[in-house]
# Entry
Amino acid sequence: MIRLFVVPVAVFFLAAVASHVVTLSMLPSTIMNKAVDMLADRGLPFHTFMLSPRATPQSQSVVRTSPDVAYSICLFDLADGPVLVEGGAWDSYGSLNVYDGETDNVVAIDLGPDEPSVTGTVLALARDQDVPVPEGLKLHVLNHPQGVALIRRLSPTDEYYARAEEAAAGDVCQKL
Amino acid sequence: MMRISAVLGSLVLGALVGPLTALWGAGLMGNRSPMSFADVSVEGWMSDWSVGSEAADPYLRARIARHGLLAMRKEGAVYFVRNTDDDGQSLTEDCTYRLSGGDQASYWWSITLYDQDSMLPMNDDDALSFDASDVATGGAWEAIISAEKPERGAWISSKAAGMYDLTLRLYRPTEGVLNDPEAHVRPPSVQRLSCGGEE
# Structure
């Protein structure tokens, strides 16, 4: 009688453990894919930085958005080749962050007057890492083709935001 | 035939239980608040210190992916949340509070009010937050949190917020904050002044 249950119980545990591990490993990429799809559905194009409107109760589209920061967002896809991302000159607190297809923050560059002159990076898949990189910039090899580049600029007032708009005009996100 | 059915049933059941336990283990079941995973607490201000960190643990990776999506590295910013006043009472639109503090251990900082859905409260008061740029000369500062604009002084509007929380963001925190937040974060005070129109 006991032998009748051995195989089904073993199958249950094997299936549970296998699907547990697979689910856990896929969660970050699933979450990032959903985020990229959501941003694309809202009209955000690939390979172009778009400055979000100043966050207000009426304009907010994500939870816990900061009303004191101007956000420039670029979706990128390395499947067709490397991508250059750069932040336009900014004289206050700012940062450029790149998030890969598993949500990892793979590049973090401080923008602003006190920081080194590096304001960008080249992103590529391993197969494209022989791409010529502009002087002064580094190449970052990513494991997943799609991701998000996000520039934050301190913007607590309308005056700051107007200046952030001018700076964002110099943001670059383009295929090489 | 019965044995094959039992094996297939076990397979399906296992394939259902596995993903559910993965979601539960990663803390992704249900609508959890940002404070659910807090492991740092400084006088009422709480922080999930894993957000902005690199994690090898697959459960932690999944949780950070969900709750810290597009968050900055800790060197860029750290976040603290509180939903109670200094006496431990829940923050509510019905009460008026004095928010006060001093210089923060960071390049820049801000305090923003969010409702229970983690959204900015739906009002048009243009008083959503208080930040370092509101402090003229550094040192001690204070602001009033209330549904109605105070006669004078800095103000964070809680109009239409219901029960709410405050988020303290420290941008480019000091090494001390990164290494030992309990010792180096200078937590602002939230003192309840009145409720329901009472003085």
Q: What stands out?
A: The first strand of chain B starts at residue 40 and ends at 42. Chain B has four helices and ten strands. The mean pLDDT of chain B is 88. The two ends of chain B are 77 Å apart (CA to CA).
